[in-house]
């Protein structure tokens, strides 16, 4: 897959990020001095063994959790001085998250009592977007993921692949600049996974959307223009200075999913 030029503008930069958790008197270091640069329109996958810190990195980037220390710098639309989102007050952080970042998880987390259209409208309604506009935005993204014919169906009436397509439409309804996906096909069969992968690649190209995808799916990783490999809370390759593809890592004799704590 094509990758943006190296001189494409930086969208987000992580600097010397640490994240620790406490379990009683015990301190668990999950992220240890992570540095990462993602450019506008770039499609990146993060691989590594369970316990490497992949999901924690994604959660911090998405402001679902805050790092113990370090910076997460987002470039404003149109340029200017980057914003360290770790310093934003909670109300501003919530607004930033809603308008700038889309999320897709292994499980779709759709609200079962609402239709596909209503689920896809939720982010815009939370942002107090007028209902008509929220509906138009949701319908456009549902069409983009091939779900125009299922607008009125509830999640229980949809297949697993259809549920994940609705979840992707919901993630993109606010036209975010960055899509974060944590094992987006981990709960799907092989054929449906391939369809969702193809959809993500197409959306990246059509919307010039930056994507950061955590996966254990080697077939997906091999297709990605850039691979970030993590182990023990650190980035081993692909931090933005020496981006590698999965085939290059394999050719070099590296195990793309590396040894690491479970």
From TrEMBL:
Residues 12-257 form the ABC transporter domain. GO terms for biological process: lipoprotein localization to outer membrane; protein localization to outer membrane. It comes from the Bacteria. Residues 240-262 are annotated as: Disordered. Transmembrane segments: none annotated. InterPro entries: AAA+_ATPase, ABC_transporter-like_ATP-bd, ABC_transporter-like_CS, ABC_transpr_LolD-like, MacB-like_ATP-bd, P-loop_NTPase. It is an enzyme of class 3 (hydrolase). Signal peptide: none annotated. The keyword ATP-binding applies. Keywords: ATP-binding, Hydrolase, Lipoprotein, Nucleotide-binding, Transport. GO terms for molecular function: ATP binding; ATP hydrolysis activity; transmembrane transporter activity. Residues 250-262 have a biased composition (Low complexity). GO terms for cellular component: membrane protein complex; plasma membrane. Its EC number is 3.6.3.-. PANTHER family: IMPORT ATP-BINDING PROTEIN (PTHR24220), LIPOPROTEIN-RELEASING SYSTEM ATP-BINDING PROTEIN LOLD (PTHR24220:SF689). Belongs to the ABC transporter superfamily. Macrolide exporter (TC 3.A.1.122) family. This is Lipoprotein-releasing system ATP-binding protein LolD. It comes from Enhygromyxa salina. The gene is lolD.
């Amino acid at each position: 897959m094509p990758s943006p030029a190296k001189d494409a503008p930086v969208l987000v930069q992580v600097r010397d990020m640490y994240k620790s958790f406490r379990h009683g008197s015990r301190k668990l270091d999950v992220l240890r001095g992570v540095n990462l640069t993602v450019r506008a329109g770039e499609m990146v996958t993060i691989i590594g063994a369970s316990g490497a810190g992949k999901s924690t990195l994604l959660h911090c980037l998405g402001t679902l959790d805050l790092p113990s220390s370090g910076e997460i710098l987002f470039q404003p639309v149109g340029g200017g001085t980057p914003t360290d989102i770790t310093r934003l007050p909670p109300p501003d952080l919530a607004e930033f998250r809603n308008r700038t970042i889309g999320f897709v998880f292994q499980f779709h987390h759709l609200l079962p009592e609402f239709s596909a259209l209503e689920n896809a409208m939720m982010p815009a309604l939370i942002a107090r977007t007028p209902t008509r506009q929220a509906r138009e935005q949701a319908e456009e993204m549902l069409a983009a993921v091939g779900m125009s014919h299922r607008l009125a169906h509830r999640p229980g009436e949809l297949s697993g692949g259809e549920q994940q397509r609705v979840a992707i439409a919901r993630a993109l309804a606010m036209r975010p600049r960055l899509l974060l996906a944590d094992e987006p096909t981990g709960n799907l069969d092989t054929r449906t996974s391939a369809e969702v992968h193809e959809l993500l690649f197409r959306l990246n190209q059509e919307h010039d959307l930056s994507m950061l995808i955590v996966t254990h799916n080697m077939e997906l990783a091999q297709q990605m223009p850039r691979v970030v490999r993590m182990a023990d809370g650190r980035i081993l390759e692909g931090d933005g200075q020496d981006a590698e593809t999965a085939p290059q890592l394999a050719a070099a004799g590296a195990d793309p999913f590396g040894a690491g704590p479970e």
